[in-house]
Amino acid sequence: MYHSVHSLMLLLALAACRETGSEADRARMPDAATRTGGAEFEDGEPGVEFEAPRLIPAIRAQITEIEDPEGATEGNLAAFKNGVGTLVSAMKTDLNRVGVTDTADFYALSDSVLWKIGGTASDLPDQVERLIGVYEERMRKAAN
């Protein structure tokens, strides 16, 4: 099972990294004013988009789903755990990109979350929400 979960996480990560659009679309600079969810720093380098902000809404929707007794199916739990693994990797990448590499609290919590993905910890959704909060706080501080 570990091998199939690892393979699925790798496929999700690769799918998230694939390039789309024409060469002309890639050459254009994105309009930060039309984006939502804080995917870019306002004063940051144009064209730099962070990975985690686009994944967070889906993870929060999955948390809502699995907290409902009828939605806590084996398939939904597996999808949630896979999504969390992808989200944690994206958060680490974003924090490294902005130079926030020494946040011991983030890395300790992310390691705990990743460790619990393999089990059936009932507090995993709460820990994921805390991890999202720490990530968002660190990114805000890096933007200022």
Number of strands: 0
Largest sheet: none
Instruction: Please identify the oligomeric state.
Output: single chain
**Share of helical residues:** 55-70%
Q: Which structural class is indicated by helix and strand composition?
A: mainly alpha
Low-confidence stretches: 2-11, 18-43
Mean pLDDT, to the nearest integer, reads 75
Number of contiguous helices: 6
**End-to-end C-alpha gap:** 43 Å
What global shape is seen? globular
SSE series? HHHHHH
Q: Tell me the radius of gyration.
A: 16 Å
Strand fraction equals: under 5%
Task: Explain what this protein looks like in three dimensions.
The structure is a single chain. By secondary structure, the chain is mainly α. It has a domain at 1-14 and 74-144. It contains six helices and no strands. The protein has helices at 2-17, 23-27, 56-67, 74-97, 104-117, 124-143.
